[in-house]
Structure formats: structure tokens, C-alpha cells
Known about the structure:
Blueprint: H1 18-21, H2 37-46, H3 58-72, E1 76-77, E2 83-84, E3 88-89, E4 93-95, E5 98-100, H4 102-113, H5 126-152, H6 159-178, H7 184-195, H8 201-214, H9 216-238, E6 252-262, H10 268-283, H11 288-295, H12 299-302, E7 307-312, H13 320-328, E8 338-339, E9 343-354, H14 356-370, E10 373-375, H15 378-386, H16 393-411, H17 417-433, H18 437-450, H19 454-466, H20 470-483, H21 490-505, H22 509-524
Antiparallel strand pairs: 1-5, 2-3, 4-5, 4-10, 6-7, 6-9, 8-9
Helix pairs in contact: 2-6, 3-4, 4-5, 5-9, 5-15, 5-17, 6-8, 9-14, 15-16, 16-17, 17-18, 18-19, 19-20, 20-21, 21-22
Amino acid sequence: MANSQRVGAKDGKKGQASATIRKKRERRPVSHTSSLGSLTVLRHQMQNMRVTRWNFNLAQILFILLGIVMVLGIGVSLPNVRRDPVSGSGDVARVGKHAIERQAFELTVGRTKDSPYAMFMGGSGPTQELAIRNMVLDQQMDHLLKLDAARREGNRVGRKQLANRIEQAVDAEIQRAKAQFKTEKAFQETFLKKRQKVANEEELRRKLRGEIRRDQAWIKAVREQILIENLESKIRRQAAALPIDKVKPEDLEVRVRQILIKTEKRSDAAAKKLAGKVLEMVKSGADFAKIAKEQSEDDYTKAKGGDMGWLAKGAFWQGPEVEKAALALKPGQISGLVKGSAGYHILKVDDRRYSATKHWNEYVDGLKKKSPMNVADPAIRAYRLSTAEAKDEAARKKNRQQAIAMFQEAVGGTYDPDLRAAVHHQIGALYAQDGNPTKAAEHYGRATDARPAPALYMALGDAQRQLKKNAAAVRSYVNASEMASDKSSQQDYFTHMMLQSTFTQLKETKLAAAEKAWIDDYLKNQPAGGMGFPGGMFTVP
């Protein structure tokens, strides 16, 4: 039985659990075969990337990829009860007349945990298991809700829309394939002619289009996503006709232009002086867009006459000062000099409207209120209660106590080791919040029994330190160090950073020195451009 003293599954001696805890999930490197199997993985990720509508940074793209993966994993049927040998029995949730099936849900959770997006949530281990499950379920329930609404509204999928999405998938797969080769010649000779048995890229495109069109599951998912996008576009367009006389600034969107004079190229005083001269020009009647093209130093908006597009509160990447000034302007008005983090901005608002995003969100909220939505999965229900907002500490404490009871009931029907570890970790965290380190250590111990992981050993060690059991805590921290062995993983790097600090506080100088040596070796082997993507390198499984 787990307790606050134990380290491994059998006893507390250093190294006893090493053979178990060092086992890592093996990943296959990306390869391209004649079956185009690995390209199909990317197609399923790229199917609804609307590249013509927004410009994405890496984080935004990965967020979209996660949503796509979730869409593809949705299983819908009329309600029934099935027994799942891994995570329990019954459907996960119901949305109106639909049920989200257990088997399809578990497959989607697995794909999400293996995706790069999981790194943005702190990894895909037991400490993030419940958060990922909850997010997947939210996405799937929202998808069903919006899909039903889109069908009721009579939306249709145009042939051109579907053809464009297929072409986007083809482009993405070809770019993915090319990225595996250093030269165009190598791509053509090795990939096109030898592996794919085609004469040129156009022939490969025809082959890919045919394969994609035969993938009925992918076509179905894309058609559903287009239906939802069409509905969203329709509802967003309606926002333009809504009155804005009494609308709060945070509920508005403004079409705004800017001229930016940067301070990085000159002193603050010089930048302010130059910006003042430009301000005099536009205040005297000069064409704002023309002056922006000539004088602005913002590379992104300069060529477009300073046009920043439609922006709402929270969407101004230039900073809160710019946001506040822009939302206060009426159409046609020009601001004074606005000091931002990059320099001095001059703003002009071309138009204002009710926020299309807010209008769409209000529409979706209305759908949720009208449609019965029920979460049946006991672990997710408990997680939602444990993370729910509460009016005061007394209400939060009541939620924690109820959630603990629900988690303890849920774990009895849970057979998946990751989920068992996640539930015990969450129970431990709730006990820790209630100031009960004894119970916290007990459940953190059970979590490491179910699925050893660095974060779980760290949590166990912290609880043991609170109980003044420093020797046991050191053993737990050592296990965390042994497990965090991947020198391509930033997640493991951060673990060793915390361990170095912790061992220093515990006056374990040799262990602290060993952590520093690991960190130094990690940093020495990083590419010159920095540490790159959070979580290290990844491959398509």
C-alpha cells in the first residue's frame, strides 16, 4: 500500500524502481512510404486550417491542430451503454439526442496526448491527463452543438469549399514531405520517383487528391467543419447590423490603422519628435494610409496603409496603451501620440461595430442553454467540480471535499494507469490545498504506483518535506531526476532546474551538483538559435 514514506512500488531504496520508471514510450521517426501513411497523419491534422483568413504564429497553429484532431475523433450515436475495459463503462457525455462514445473519445484523448499541443499544457503525463480529457470533451460537445445548429440553419457545403480544403491538405502533405530532404533534387529523386513511383510533383498531387477523396472519414469531418464555419461566418456578419450606441468598449471591435515610430532605432526623445511631425501631417489633412506607407516603421501593417484589421479588447498585440486609445476613438478620429512598448503610435479608427466574436460567443452560449448537455464520465465531472469558480473560500472548500469523494468513487472503475495516476494526483492536490499533507502524500504515492512520472515524484517529495520526512523526500526527488532523462526535452530541463534548487535547500550538495552538471550538458547541446519548441523535438508516432 502506498504511504508517505514509500518511494517505489516495492520499497524505498534508491534505484529499486529504476527498471520500471526508466521505461519510455518509443516513437517512430517520420518516414514516407508508398502508402503515404505518415502523410495521412498530417492531412488529418491540417484539414480545417483556414490559412486565408488569419496569419498564424506557431502557438495559434498548434491550437488549431488540436481542434482538428478533436473533430476527427468524435464518435456520435444514439445513446447506449458499452463497457470499456480501459477507462470504465458507458458513454462519456450526451448532447441533446447524441452521445459521445467512450471508444472514440479515448482514441481522441490518445491522439491529443501524443500531439505537439500537449507540450503547451505542460506535457502529456498524468498531471495533465484530466485537463486534456476535459478539454477534449469540451471541444467534442461544442462541435456537436454547433453542427446541429448549422444543419437547422440550412447551411450547405459548397463544392469549391471542399475542393479548396482538399488542395490545402495536398499542399501541406507535399510541404511536409519536402521538409525531410535537403534539396529539391533529393526530394524528386528519392521521394517522388523511388518511394511514390511518380514522375513529378503534379502527378503526386493527383495521386494525393484521389486518396483524400476516398478517405470518407476525413471528407465527413471536413464537411462538418465547413458547415460550422459557414454558420459562424453568418452569425459574425450579423454583428455589423447591431446598434452600438450603448455598447461598452469591451464589446466593440474597431477597424484601426496605425503609424509606428520605433524607439529601437533612435532615442526616445528623437522618436517622439519624429512621431510629432508625422502627427502634424495627418492632423492637417494628409491621407493617413499614404503617410503610413511612407513613414510607419511597423513591417506588418506598413504596406497595408497601417491597417491593423478589426480588433477587439484583448486582441491588441501592441499593448494595453494602444488598446485603450483605439477603443476610445470614434470613426474618423485620429489619436495623439500613444507610447507603447515598441515606440510611438498614431492611430486612426475607420469604423466600429459590435464585436463579432462576442456575438458568436453569445450565440453559442444560447445554444448551450437550450440544449440538454450532460457529462456522464465520473472523473471529468469530479475534475470540473474541483476547478469550478466559487464565491469564497468556504464554497471552494466544499467543492474540494465533494470532488475528493467523487474522484475516490471514480477511481474504483478506472483501469487505465495514466488515468488512475491522474485521479490520485488530483486528490493529492486537493488535500494539499486543504492543508492535509499526510493525505496528499498518500495519494501522490498511489499516483506513482499507477504510473511513475517525474512530476508525480516531485509532488510526492514536496508533500514529504512538509511532513518533515526529508530522507523520503530526497528519494522521491532522486526518482524524479532519474526519470527526467531526455536531454532533448525542455520539460525535463525544467524538472532538473527545480531539483537543483530543491537539493540546494536540503543541503544535498552532491545531488545539487549532479543536477547542475545535467543542466550544463543540456544547455551545451542546444542549437545556436535557442531551445526551440517547448518540450523538445517531436516526431509523428
